[in-house]
Write a structure and sequence with these properties.
The structure is a homodimer.
Chain A: H1 22-31, E1 48-51, E2 56-66, H2 67-70, H3 77-94, E3 99-108, H4 114-130, E4 134-142, E5 147-157, E6 172-175, H5 181-191, H6 197-208, H7 214-223, E7 226-231, H8 236-247, E8 250-253, H9 260-269, H10 273-279, E9 286-290, H11 292-304, E10 310-316, E11 321-325, E12 328-331
Parallel strand pairs in A: 3-4, 8-11
Antiparallel strand pairs in A: 1-2, 2-5, 3-5, 6-9, 6-10, 7-9, 8-10, 11-12
Helix pairs in contact in A: 3-4, 3-7, 5-6, 7-11
């Protein structure tokens, strides 16, 4: 596996310069689109859907990986291609939908070698195989940077679909893992920071080999009781704000799910571990709300399959999103990874 | 509507330089993908498919439009965005499948203005509305050139799907319109050729405002008797060769469907109209084979709806593809529009 030299633009991994901002762009687009009558899932959720019949939905998702913004330094082409698949599958995972097939639209710079193309193909296939799904078609084009548009298709039963909009006051807020590793890993790579090998390995693994929590999503959708869910690719803080917007509740967190490696890394460089956990992004955990009645069985069913489900707070009537530590409430800001924006 | 200034690279519209070649890239990719068991449509057809149940298929397609290779000089952003939609819908049209929903993955250069984004959105929506389909989701990213990945989804009944592989010896080869206009139009734009206003208008319209022959595709799939079909986006010659490869027949053409404007243009500049009609690409006609039994009803049903269906030859046992004029047979080469290749 060759390390990427082709795709420059490291400074854009954490965007700095001007621009309209991804969310504003999406808003402008949607304003100009005629809306499908009886749209099953509104714009702004993790996936889109079309009714097949009375009970079934076709689920569709496309995610675009761009070399200069989505490939961190040192990531191989194999890893980048696999990541493009993971990003897309993670969105279906958050809705509790099993992907059946993938399409790949691949933009390659003219100078891409045969070896590089094979490495990309193998990475795409590895990501697909990990989640028991097949690539069945796609398109290629000549681009100045590597572009991988991954399209995922799945079918689900209407009453099992979990959207972003069902969280109710009193529901338990939970996540499938610990946060902060990707943010710390990106800092190591971009700023060339030194850390002990063991921590470094774990933090870089989070960056180079992300995982989609499909098993958790499927098992929880099957159990029922998950009122809302989102994948945390834009960071924990933005994920909470998006859930709030779509569900019209607030959240009070009583625990921040920070990984031990993130604590160690933060200590070394005088950083706040909370900031790394909340505002990084490029993590593919599920952020869910679960009814109190189903919480115990949800937790045990996920743990039985070898996964993690951590309660971190509750949905509240108050629309704020804050972290409560003893009697102190601190606001969690709408801040994190966003393409295009400073 | 502002004319594109952002997206340079005019010389690449007809690729000249080195590179592996799009078909070889696709071959390399497919070789490295695990193949889905019981794949409904093999790699290399216009669309991909997944079984929904015993009778229905989910049809999926993604097509990538890239600024520097797919946007001719003088094309507006509105037209480019619309074209991205038309390209994708045309593939479904060739299979006789009605698109239900579209997703758009949009890569925009950082400097893209609000006005430009709105123009792109309006173009996408216009293309969708023309074919009675809705955009239901997508993704955005920051790219150095404009990238539009359009994803189309449709549902069809298994026994109505038309693939590239069903042509039988004796079937009538037909097309939905005349060829050569796009090739002539691109020559005008790229080489700055002068032609009388009336012809110029017609030739540039073919470039800037292509149409997908969805109505024809749907009505013919419904009638039955279409044994194979392909959309001619790679040019008439390559389309015939692809049909041959998948159907294992040859074709003898007794008529070349050349538009009158192409004749006039070719005469002005001492070019061969046959070359323009066969080897240009970026046209979205359907190239079909139809059983002799159904030919008459196919022709009249398409003409009744205001369309065109022109018989241009027959499928033959001999695997060659040639044009017969009186007693002279000239070979039709595998040549045309292909990204990445000289």
């Amino acid at each position: 596996m060759s390390v990427i030299l082709l795709f420059m633009g490291v400074e854009r991994i954490l965007p700095k310069a001007s621009g309209i901002g991804e969310r504003k762009i999406i808003e402008l687009l949607i304003q100009n689109f005629n809306q499908m009558p009886e749209m099953v899932i509104p714009f702004g959720d993790d996936v889109s859907a079309v009714s097949i019949d009375k009970t079934q939905l076709a689920i569709l998702k496309t995610d675009m990986l761009v070399g200069k913004t989505d490939i961190p330094p040192g990531m191989t082409l194999w890893q980048a291609a696999r990541k493009a698949v993971i990003m897309t599958i993670s969105d279906l995972a958050s809705k509790g939908v099993k992907p059946i097939a993938l399409l790949i639209a691949l933009g390659l710079p003219r100078e891409t070698s045969r070896v590089n193309i094979e490495e990309i193909a193998k990475g795409l296939n590895a990501g697909a195989q990990e989640y028991d799904v097949y690539i069945i078609g796609g398109d290629t084009g000549e681009t100045s940077d590597l572009i991988i548009c991954c399209v995922a298709f799945g079918i689900t039963v209407k009453n099992k679909l979990i959207t972003r909009s069902g969280a109710k006051v009193g529901d338990i807020l939970a996540v499938t893992g610990f946060f902060g590793k990707t943010g710390a890993g990106l800092k190591i790579l971009i700023d060339g920071l030194k850390v002990p090998p063991k921590i470094r390995k774990e933090l870089l693994k989070a960056v180079y080999l992300p995982k989609a929590h499909l098993k958790e999503g499927l098992i929880l959708a099957n159990l029922g009781g998950v009122s809302a869910s989102i994948d945390s690719s834009d960071g924990l803080a933005i994920s909470l704000h998006e859930l709030r917007k779509m569900s019209n509740v607030g959240f009070t967190l009583t625990k921040l799910p920070i990984s031990p490696e993130t604590f160690e890394f933060a200590k070394l460089y005088g950083l706040k571990p909370e900031e790394l956990a909340l505002y990084s992004g490029e993590e593919y955990e599920l952020v869910l709300t679960i009814t109190p009645k189903k919480w115990k069985s949800a937790k045990s069913i996920v743990e039985e399959m070898g996964g993690t489900l951590i309660a971190i707070g509750k949905a509240t009537e108050n629309k704020e999103i804050c972290f409560q530590k003893e009697a102190v409430y601190s606001e969690i800001l709408y801040k994190g990874w966003e393409h295009f924006r400073s």
